[in-house]
Amino acid sequence: MIEESILISTGVIGALTTYVLNTRLKLGPIRASTIPSFAIGLLFKLFIMELPNGLSNTIPLVFFGASFAGMTSRRIIDSAPWMMASGAIFGTLFVYSSRFFNGYGGGLGIAACLSIVIVIGIRWLLDKISKMLED
Q: How remote is the C-alpha of 74 from its chain's centroid?
């Protein structure tokens, strides 16, 4: 349970960091993903001792995958809280479904795309419910 929480939190941090670097600091989506992902990978490779259950290898992978979601433009996801939700969804998808993507290229990208689509769907549904309640 602790490992899952760490990985889901990593998803939130990875998506949010990339989103902020992309949308607020105007680094562009590629740099916004590459710079922190490289830094996290290097940090864990050079300075972090082996963590239990392979977390030393998995945390950078989850951060990198979540950064794909964070590359989304502000026109699609317009606020940090929604991007954090997307990161949490990405982390959850990774934790509970990564074994299904074994052997398929693009598993991280698919999970990132799904996390954005799920957030868009949730927002759409909440907007519809809100409009129904107003009437």
A: 15
Token pair, residue 69, equals 């979601």
Q: What are phi and psi of 120, to 5 degrees?
A: -60, -40
Q: pLDDT-based confidence at 80, cuts 50/70/90?
A: very high
C-beta of residue 29 within 8 angstroms of C-beta of residue 112? no
Q: Tell me how crowded residue 10 is: count the other CB atoms within 10 A of its CB.
A: 25
Specify the pTM. 0.91
Enclosing domain of residue 125: 2-134
Q: What is the mean pLDDT of the chain?
A: 92
Structure tokens at 113: 């795309």
User: Where do we find the tokens 């995958």?
Assistant: 65
pLDDT of residue 129: 96
**Domain count of the fold of the chain:** 1
Q: Bin 26: left if φ > 0, else alpha if -120 < ψ < 50, else beta.
A: left
* Cβ neighbours for 22, distance < 8 A, ≥ 6 positions apart: 28, 29, 32, 33, 70, 71, 73
Confidence band, pLDDT 50/70/90 cuts, at residue 103: low
